[in-house]
Amino acid sequence: MVRTARARTAGTTGPATWRNWAGNVSSTPARVVAPRTVDELREEVRRAASDGLRVKAVGTGHSFTAAAATDGVLVRPQALTGILSLDRAAGTVTVAAGTVLEDLNRALAREGLSLANMGDIMEQTVSGATSTGTHGTGRDSASIAAQIRALELVTADGSLLTCSEKENPEVFASARLGIGALGIVTSLTFAVEPIFLLTAREEPMPFERVLAEFDRHVAENEHFEFYWFPHTGNCNTKRNNRSQGPAAPPGAVSAWIEDELLSNGLFQAVNSVGRAFPATVPSIARIASRALSARTYTDIPYKVFTSPRRVRFVEMEYALPREHVVEALRELRAAVDRSSLRISFPVEVRTAPADDITLSTASGRETAYIAVHMYRGTPYQAYFTAAERIFTAHGGRPHWGKVHTRDAAYLAEAYPRFGEFTALRDRLDPDRVFGNDYLRRVLGS
Q: In DSSP terms, which residues pair with 150 in a beta bridge?
């Protein structure tokens, strides 16, 4: 058995305000608990139900919705961390739910292993990331949840369910991305593979060229994504493909300039200026969109897929049928151009293949994601409202952990298997022990 974990402490505390990473969501739970074992977690769930309190688990708070907010019992899984088992023959790793993705990636690398794909940050817990649908970009793989091969789940009566394609398969189909509505995940088993190298090619490209060549870029690259800078016709593209090597990571100086000075330090400064003086934003955007230069480097997966993101923001992201993304982006650009909006954050575009997870944003269809962001503390409602109007007109599905205004009526139409999920919720949590206001809105009462 391989085990790696950060030191954690357990305990129970009284009312204290919880806030998410972006600072746009807060709640005051009646008590906060940090169970040291799965059995302690089961007992906390039973105790909460007996006290008439609702229960929510929270990871590192990187969601922009109130999916984890509660006035009942807030469960912090910091003591439930580490790799629990590693099966090289099966190509799987089982990890405790509170493990941070950075810790998992580093531990796997030490074992010569890797996930096939991942998102662009590593600060989330594995259960928080999968439960809200965190994804990267990919022709053949994208969602972290789609890499799950089994999981354990504490349900509303304190039972512990083991779920996989063979054991409780109807729960497995939904609980890989359960938004915290079906129970509290205690462990996840992921598919892993021998570690490999990725060559990343980053290149500035005009907006119209990216859109004209979008389908070709997706088809020709294992992982393609791009960022468009509003108020400009400029994009930055990134193509990641497997490589025979040798490894050629960015030099220390160039990496610091690109990832720290430009993408974090300078970006923080220009956003602060833009928030104070909105009229400067278009000029800043034109300068910023030209600051990043082309570069190519080769490294192990998590060092290519992920980047430090220290500038705080609020985000909305929608998953569209892939064939609609070019039209939607042109509409979004036109909406920004004819408005008085001042947008200092780039728009991010990624893709995913269809998967079979009940409420995955890529469930049953080839998908493209459009993510819009606003610097924290900047009014975002007008921009997000305009973007959401475009996205929903194209049959978009909102990311479960990012700002949106959709309700159960809309989502029941957007997801063919929506009723399958809510029926399972009725069976596993009829009294809504794991409910909250957000789940009431998106899933119904």
A: 164, 189
